[in-house]
Amino acid sequence: MSDVKTPIVQFGTSRFLQAHADLFFSEGTPARAITVVQSSGDPARAARLGALAAEGGFPVRVRGQQDGKVVDEERRVTSVRRTLSTASDWAELSRVVTEEAEAILSNTGDSGYEPKPADDQARPDQAMSYPAKLFHLLAARHAGGGKPLTVFPMELIPNNGKVLKARVLEIAAGQKADPLLIEWLNACLWVNSLVDRIVSEPIDPVGAVAEPYALWAIEAQDGLELPVVHPSVQLVEDLEEIERLKLHILNLGHTAMAAFWMAGEADPDAIVRDLLAGEVGEQVKDVMKTEVLPGFALRGLGDKAEGYLAVTLERFANPFLDHRIADIAQNHGQKLERRIGAFLAWVREVQPDYAAPTLDALCAREEA
């Protein structure tokens, strides 16, 4: 095991984390050492786990367009100094969380918070969900006299910090935890955040290919400090603004493109950048200009929406990313409701007669 202290304990080994937080902690100020934890116990990922902390780090290839220029470069991630598994290294993991950790971050998948039968057990068990494992680790830290720490969930769940805190406190109540432990858990900072970066493919045995754009937006609260200073890490007063921009420009743009594509010849192998350069792309740009941006302007976000749209179109045009529109078109009905229907409802809260004939037609087409 590494003898370097690691103030960051990360649950998750995904290529997204490799090209996102792990890279930021390597490049940022101050550089932060990480213990990466595999919580799934999946033996198929054992090679990845072993390679993450290899001497010399691992590569992240950044490829795409930014500010009108083509970017194609390799960066090295050297922040990961130790790797552990909840299945085989629990004692060492508990020591690290108790003695070294200042912050815990996670990206365990959108279903990672779902309760499991083993969550009710009094002792840690590999079959537990991530929140239950986290409860036992935090309880051990409290018992060892450790200070409250900061928890940064990165799962794509609205109010992820509040949701994770509520689940851990629910588990604590089920375990009939000492009131002093409950008080200590409440003294920890549970942080809402939003992450965004397209990570297109892995590098074997570890590493990833990612677009230049990256964002880790962290919602401010009393006592919170950013875990690292890096251009892609932003402290914001309220995440709703960024969530709306992402959902109703980036995601809405993808869904509108899929709808226009399905209404045409619908080549199953079509990719986003080629569609953007053709008739479908013109339809997307037109609906953005005439119906989406004016809606954001009504909400006081006109200038920010224009800037975000420019960056989004540049991301769509990434010459290195083969993003199939057929993949985006999966679960199309749900995406129409969440991305387009919700946008129209949001705008019509302030202007009930807001005209958006193309977006209304896309939603109506699905309902027909």
From TrEMBL:
Name of the protein described by the UniProt record: Putative altronate dehydrogenase
This protein's record includes keyword Oxidoreductase: yes
Domain Mannitol dehydrogenase N-terminal per the UniProt entry, residue ranges: 8-220
Entry-linked InterPro entries: 6-PGluconate_DH-like_C_sf, 6PGD_dom2, Mannitol_DH_C, Mannitol_DH_N, NAD(P)-bd_dom_sf
Lineage: Bacteria, Pseudomonadati, Pseudomonadota, Alphaproteobacteria, Rhodobacterales
Domain called Mannitol dehydrogenase C-terminal: residue spans: 238-340
Keywords annotated in UniProt: NAD, Oxidoreductase
GO terms assigned for molecular function: oxidoreductase activity
